[in-house]
Prior knowledge:
By secondary structure, chain A is an alpha+beta fold.
Amino acid sequence: MKSIRVGNGAGFWGDNLDAPRRLCEAGRLDYLTLEYLAELTMSILAHQKSRDPSAGWVTDFGEVIASLVPSLRAQPGLKIVTNAGGMNPRGCAAAIADVLVQQGLPDIVIGAVSGDNLFPRLDELLRAGESFAHFETGQPIDSIRNRIVSANAYLGAGGIVESLAGGARIVMTGRVADASLTLGPAVYELGWNWLDWAQRDWDRLAAATVAGHLIECGAQCTGGMFSAWRPEISLSDVGYPIAEISDDGRVIITKPPESGGTVNVETVAEQLVYEIGDPTHYLTPDVDTDFSHVRLSQVGIDRVEVSHARGAPPPETLKVSLAYQDGFMAAATLVVCGPNAVENARAAAAMILDRLASAGVRLARTHVEILGNGDTLPGLAMSPASDPWDVVLRVSAADRSRAALERFVREFAPLVTAGPPGITGYTGGRAKPHPVLAYWPTTVSRAQLNPEVVMRTAKEWASTGGKSK
Amino acid sequence: MTEPIRLAEIAHARSGDKGNHANIGVIAFSEEGFRHLGKVLTEVRVAEFFLPLRPSEVRRYALPGIHAYNFVLKNVLGGGASRSLRTDSQGKTLSLALLEMRIPALEGAGMNDDG
């Protein structure tokens, strides 16, 4: 029986910078995966690429790859699969190639997987009959067509499998389904049937997909965010998760020895249900996975076996995440202290809105929160009435007009001198309005996608600067 | 009649976002607790609890393998991660809120038809 250890050292762009290195040093990994792309991250990267054609990838990754050089040297079998490429996998490959060449690793092969970016092809695809209607509301795309900033299909594990088969030690993708980062290595290393759908073992693909889902958010399955957390579960040195996947589809979730956090049936169960809809159809481009019968059992200290995932062929359409400009937003805070802090904070918020109204500024949407008074969930009375000495007043607003929001954020500082007593905390400078990139989930037919893999050594990538030709 | 208990006494939970929808997975600590949740933690009860957030729909799905129910609350995030004006635009605190719900104690379940 063959098995591989896949560890995930990043669950989002902004996750702990030391985690990938620590996981490689202590995890005895065959593969390190690094997942950076939340639903709207691509639209931010699209904006960056529009200003600089060599940008559009996760800038953290340069620093991360530099930190991994010693592990890449010491562990010749270690491979990395990441979606850090964002809107520009080839640009990211070229940028890290510079680092690898400088560090004396010019022969590492990097495979860049692209083909997820549909933005340049939208008109062509619309002509070919794709509607890109909102997949929940059915709303046609016309209403937002001229405001779209990015459109990316979720690719599956295919490009990753192809890169690994071609000898890549680092696979750099754009948008792929998060779980595919784990499934790709499993398919390649464990010799699972792949290209011929009739030969695929859907239950095994489902098992590795569940493994990928469980580790994709990093420490969220090793004790982070655990609703029954207690201070005895040390998190400052939390270990990031590792999936051991065997060729027969057996999966065990664990973490490096001596690391903080905990892997038990409860922490893993919480991650199994994280951000899922109908558990009988967890859809990726690779497999339609049924989570509902998955069982978890503790098989050792910090070792949980995951079994009974069931798989079926995936649908012919793939998910597309599309982002469009939708006006502007701003939020600012003040601290309100003293007796009657809650009432005074409410009064201060009313003053902001009154003064804006007097100035003729009308905002499409505003929202007031007194943090410390249970306002994070508006209307839910979570704690009994109390009289805290200090609260944070947060007011947020959205409008089509950036100018209106520029005026909105100017109304906070005057409250320090022209508001109720006890207002402080205006030290971070004036808040800035930012563009809202709204999310439009839709689909595209699989036949329209042409994933493309480019394989080069680090030395070759460094000399191309990421250009495709 | 025994006193109602906090849901947190028999279950743990995690929540997150999908666009403007939230999901809350509620996992019973025991099989007995899971059967109890099946009776008392209904779509209607959860929708009532979160009424101030005005869900357009609440759906419950079972994951018997891990003794859990997944609740999908439609349109409760004030626009979702990018558009919502709330601090918790991604619904990460909904799970802790739901765990404070008062439910009938386990041993009283059979005597209390309306949950």
